[in-house]
Amino acid sequence: MILIISFVLSLFSFSHASVLDFCVGDLAGPIGPAGYSCKKPSKVTADDFAYSGLGIAGNTSNIIKAAVTPAFDAQFPGLNGLGISAARLDLAGGGVIPLHTHPGASELLVVIQGSILAGFISSSNTVYIKKLNKGDVMVFPQGLLHFQINAGGSSALAIVTFSSSNPGLQILDFALFKSNFPTPLIVETTFLDAALVKKLKAVLGGSG
Amino acid sequence: MILIISFVLSLFSFSHASVLDFCVGDLAGPIGPAGYSCKKPSKVTADDFAYSGLGIAGNTSNIIKAAVTPAFDAQFPGLNGLGISAARLDLAGGGVIPLHTHPGASELLVVIQGSILAGFISSSNTVYIKKLNKGDVMVFPQGLLHFQINAGGSSALAIVTFSSSNPGLQILDFALFKSNFPTPLIVETTFLDAALVKKLKAVLGGSG
Amino acid sequence: MILIISFVLSLFSFSHASVLDFCVGDLAGPIGPAGYSCKKPSKVTADDFAYSGLGIAGNTSNIIKAAVTPAFDAQFPGLNGLGISAARLDLAGGGVIPLHTHPGASELLVVIQGSILAGFISSSNTVYIKKLNKGDVMVFPQGLLHFQINAGGSSALAIVTFSSSNPGLQILDFALFKSNFPTPLIVETTFLDAALVKKLKAVLGGSG
Amino acid sequence: MILIISFVLSLFSFSHASVLDFCVGDLAGPIGPAGYSCKKPSKVTADDFAYSGLGIAGNTSNIIKAAVTPAFDAQFPGLNGLGISAARLDLAGGGVIPLHTHPGASELLVVIQGSILAGFISSSNTVYIKKLNKGDVMVFPQGLLHFQINAGGSSALAIVTFSSSNPGLQILDFALFKSNFPTPLIVETTFLDAALVKKLKAVLGGSG
Amino acid sequence: MILIISFVLSLFSFSHASVLDFCVGDLAGPIGPAGYSCKKPSKVTADDFAYSGLGIAGNTSNIIKAAVTPAFDAQFPGLNGLGISAARLDLAGGGVIPLHTHPGASELLVVIQGSILAGFISSSNTVYIKKLNKGDVMVFPQGLLHFQINAGGSSALAIVTFSSSNPGLQILDFALFKSNFPTPLIVETTFLDAALVKKLKAVLGGSG
Amino acid sequence: MILIISFVLSLFSFSHASVLDFCVGDLAGPIGPAGYSCKKPSKVTADDFAYSGLGIAGNTSNIIKAAVTPAFDAQFPGLNGLGISAARLDLAGGGVIPLHTHPGASELLVVIQGSILAGFISSSNTVYIKKLNKGDVMVFPQGLLHFQINAGGSSALAIVTFSSSNPGLQILDFALFKSNFPTPLIVETTFLDAALVKKLKAVLGGSG
């Protein structure tokens, strides 16, 4: 038997050398267009493939009565290069995830608790809106403006996942009113009222 | 005002013509390597982007005490071409999702209820196993053998999502024992016992 | 000599059969996630690879004093599947291309005439703005909100190209105010004033 | 036992519906940028995944004393969408595969018999040349001009494979001298002699 | 003439600066999801694009009477980023390449000598099996279980190539019986006998 | 109001951490198959997304009476990873961009001034030629030989863009006559005259 084992051990010896089944992100290494550098396979453990941050409810004591808790590659480096990521949406009564896009990914939402009114707007300016109940799923195609609103009386919870390990998140109100986008340029490129822009910048903390 | 509107309507008129933000699958049309043909945009409604099939618990009255309910492009054609899909895992007490692979996708699992012991095996023959509680997330890199087992006393529920709208699913036991794979070839390519192979084929319905 | 030629003709005979150097779009055929069906190679002529639509100035007699003339795959089917497309921007004095995104492509702008103030907003709510003169180039990364404004006294002209044959175009004001997006939902997901929303819908032709 | 089997049969019933592990090309159906339409899975047999055309030596009785026998998706539709294909190179004594490119794929050559001198030219105009013996492998990066020459006294045989199921093949001499490329334009864009161009067109069958 | 040359030298001077026709892997540098870092172009020689390791027969004096000799990017860094790789299969009389998958690539097999019985199992649990003779080619779609068996009396030799420079290799028996996969979990997720699992672990060197 | 702002600031705090909307190339860092390493987001400014090098006419005082001025990722690092790049073509009277390929990209040409005769040759040895006037657009599918000639009396100017941030450029005459490609091998693989090859090497500076 020992003889047989030694035969086997000398066989396929390469399979130890070329482990690129995965590329757990080394957040301290160089980053490239395809993602983070890979942690050394010999230092990778099972903990690198699991993440517990989505188990904790987000704090919804804010003006939108909602919270987004991401599990993107920056939070969960085991996702690096695998083309998938997730986030948790907590919506208190009256909670709203304002209009936003993910520049680099499509999104799939699953309602875990409560009910949610969700929708997106196409390039043809058609709005697709659905009321979703517990267990319902909705998909938001890549890069299009979309929103989620608590449609029931009590708290709602959803898990959303993305077709990228780093989908990005551009919240329309933050892009306009929490950024350094100069007010005259906002007015010129959106037709919004300067007074309204200034008021919303005051609320959200924008400058310029 | 009417003048202004007519100016606007003549502007960007092309945006109505080239709607390919999405490609809702037309299951009756030709299929290509990139997926189903697209349903005509004019026939697409909000219903095409939502799916309610994951809201219903799978039937776990079977030998594995578990059920997989998919929302792949074949069930939910709105996913076609978007690089994402989902499934629901129901695990009764003692339930097991047997060893399997998804040939074309990585998988992200979120525990919704109960606790689950999950793991995968790398190309280097290292096994990465984690016990996951409610809210925990685990990723299974593309194409590798993995499993999920109910690790608590009561029912467990998980939502899994994939980095493809058609991830595929190859269950090891079904590939071997529920297929037409001839028993002598199974024995020769796995070193399993012919008697065992025949016994498992009888249970699972294999031939050959 | 004749002998030699016949030898040659029998050689590499396959190269006539498998012409998929290109896939000129057949706009009447089925569409899939990767684009239009291919026109038969035998019917393809040099005309399929050229397009003259960008040679004509767009009509800027409208409220934005600007026009976008696209050469996407729907207008120029020779681009189908080649991962590139173009458009022409005409900006009269005071002209503005309002805030918009391309859900599926990065954009490269070249100023042909005049000067243009252009910018985009990142996921981190940072605004990157540049004044561009004739010959200057600017890139707008995929899926992010961006704008272009005539920054000189006279007309400006730019050619923009995209990293997709069908980049899509979502104009923020059109998505909000020229669509069927119900006013109460706009207010709830953007914090804008209902009165303002209604006013802009009246101008742009939105409903709901 | 019968009870158990029926349980199993009702489980995972979806796996019969969504078979897109592969997409055997239906050469009669519509073609798109990603390849041929898929043959119905129910009509696919093991024969679709095998091809015997590379077992026959190509006819090298021609001016280049060489032959290329392809197994691209047009000849072997089972490759459709799988990102790989092959060809057989036969080189009689003195045989030459003239300078050529594959517009859409990198190439890997394995010498099966004899010895071959092979090389490619980079974008920096550096030539990388190797003499390869039986069992040696060489890679030619995508889209670069390369050649293979019999470097021994007797016949040589190589198998080449490509990183695409439809790599394309542009043979420099055929593009110039076996096409309808007008002689004055060839002279103008290559600095070659008109007399030489006409002579080579006469040999290879070009017009224009 | 000297004048002309100096004109030319000042032309296209950029083509020396941006050499990324290829990215020969620097095995000592950082690795990312897309592969190894690139060796400096100035240090690249023709030797980087050739590999002689497949010219030597693998040692088949082992229990499977077979050997796999890889030319993946870890062995042949010139393949890095080019989407192709190869391996040599040696099958002595009675030799078997046991059931395995390549998590990230499709495979193309060419029989160079002898005859081989090969097959794969689809997601629908259909087995596609072919007897292949010298010169025959077979394709194994990405991620599916497949095997190769010497089908003749004498030695067989095949060259296999892959649609990735790092296809991975997961051998079923090694994943189960040569790994640290705990025996109770194997039994629970495969329905195999604990006694059989322990026996095969003893032969193959597994633990747990 | 202060209370509200602090609520907002604690919300979505992650969006500051994971900025990978773009990956401005760090030309001094490691390079991988997907491009350059990313400059630190905190060091990125608006200047990184703009480039002024295409505003200057290339020097056409050379034998081809033409100049190519590139804006690839090596010159304009803001393009890194975004799948697009550009170049400026200056053609004096009688100017010619000789036959060339881009190994990794399709090209889109827009005529800005003058008129241009342009064409490409397919894998089937068909030549597609068009005379283009100001404003006309033409596409050259990936990897195929193509050319541009000034077709008017005065200077012509074109902007070309590519479906890659690093398209590569292989000029046929330079590959043959400005490289170290040994003359006997050129003759053998192209059927050109040794005398002609030597003459052109003398003009263009080739060796070997």
TrEMBL record, chains A, B, C, D, E, F:
Protein name per Swiss-Prot or TrEMBL: Germin-like protein
Keywords: Apoplast, Disulfide bond, Glycoprotein, Manganese, Metal-binding, Receptor, Secreted, Signal
Pfam families membership: Cupin_1
Disulfide links within the chain: C23-C38
GO molecular function terms noted in the UniProt entry: manganese ion binding
Residues annotated as binding Mn(2+): H100, H102, E107, H146
One GO location term (cellular component): apoplast
TM annotation in the entry: none
Annotated binding of oxalate, by residue: H102, E107
UniProt record similarity statement: Belongs to the germin family.
Subcellular location(s) per record: Secreted, Extracellular space, Apoplast
Domain Cupin type-1, residue spans: 52-198
Signal peptide start and end residues: 1-17
Organism annotation: Vigna unguiculata
InterPro entries per UniProt: Cupin_1 (IPR006045), Germin (IPR001929), Germin_Mn-BS (IPR019780), RmlC-like_jellyroll (IPR014710), RmlC_Cupin_sf (IPR011051)
